[in-house]
Amino acid sequence: MDNQMSYARSVESAEAAAEQTKPRPATIKDFIHIAKPGILFSNSITTFAGFWLASQGTIDWMLMLFTLLGTVLVMASGCVLNNYLDRDMDIKMSRTRERALPTGVLSPSTVLIYGILLGVAGLALLGLGVHTLAALLGLLGLFFYVWVYTAWLKRTSVWSTAIGGVSGAIPPVIGYCAVHGSIDVNAWILFAIMYLWQPPHFWALGIRRLDDYRNAGYPLLPVVQGVPTTKISMMRYVVPLVPVSMLLYFTGSVGPVYLFVSAVLGLYWIYLTIQGFRVETGSEAEERWAKKNFLFSVNYLTILFLVMVLTTITK
């Protein structure tokens, strides 16, 4: 009898443990979160700013709707497929291991199909609701983010962030070209602003989460070449970002307020990055500096593009 009771208790314990490890049912929030809404929001601002800049006061609201929705869907596709391809690495990082895919809440096949459907829908909206150039730019950005960055360089090259930055620089160009219909000097300036912004932004996060990226096996710049070298590389992007961001004023596209704000924001980011050389490598002070630098980079992008919208010169 005692053996039977002991066996029953062990079965109950095993069932309880299995129940605890069983993934919870997926919710709509899981599908939203796996598309990385924070990234979608910030890039939507840049897309809108590009559209507004090209419109010069005459807004085609339906065209804007198709442009924003199509671009968001394409970006969401890239983020979802990024999660799909990184699922084996995400489970090794404390920052990502509780996401819906690593925990088994969403299956890999579901995530793959979801990502593909988002991409098809987004490219169709851009191609049919905007024009071919917008769809081609969306396809280029998706290709760079999913295949060039995530599937290839992110696991093999220390310069994955620099090269993969091409994809993140395309959203404002889509917005601009949706109206203008071609790639001109303003489109290239928007591209350059976003391209230069990304590496220091992401490397600040990499320094802050250094152990996470090292444990996951990512050959990120601070992991492979060290934090001091990464800080020098950050300066190589932050410094030229200042004059590049100011160029829109000299093309006659924005007013003097934008010129002033872009200069102040950029110079402060340079100052903030220089502060990183004054803290001890591996210290808590360095971690606080990296967090401050990362958060400022997010605010920098938001403020710069909002001021761009508010000071656009209408004709």
What does this structure look like?
- The protein is an all-alpha fold and 315 residues long.
- It has a single domain (30-310), classed as Tetracycline Repressor, domain 2, CATH 1.10.357.
- The chain is 78% helix and 0% strand.
- The chain has 15 helices and no strands.
- Helix 7 runs antiparallel to helix 8 (160-168), helix 7 packs antiparallel against helix 9 and helix 10 runs antiparallel to helix 13.
- It is globular.
- The N and C termini lie far apart (92 Å).
What can be said about this structure in brief?
The chain is an all-alpha fold.
How many extended strands? 0
Task: Please give the domain count.
Answer: 1
Shape label: globular
Q: Please, what is the average pLDDT?
A: 92
User: Fraction of residues in helices?
Assistant: over 70%
Reading off the top of the CATH hierarchy, the class is best stated as Mainly Alpha
What are the secondary-structure elements, in order, as H or E?
Answer: HHHHHHHHHHHHHHH
Sheet/helix structural class: mainly alpha
Task: Quote the CATH topology.
Answer: Tetracycline Repressor, domain 2
Write the layout of secondary structure elements.
Blueprint: H1 2-21, H2 28-33, H3 37-55, H4 61-85, H5 87-90, H6 108-130, H7 132-156, H8 160-168, H9 171-180, H10 185-208, H11 210-216, H12 221-224, H13 227-250, H14 256-275, H15 284-310
Defining traits:
Tetracycline Repressor, domain 2; 0% strand; mainly alpha; single chain; 315 residues; 15 helices
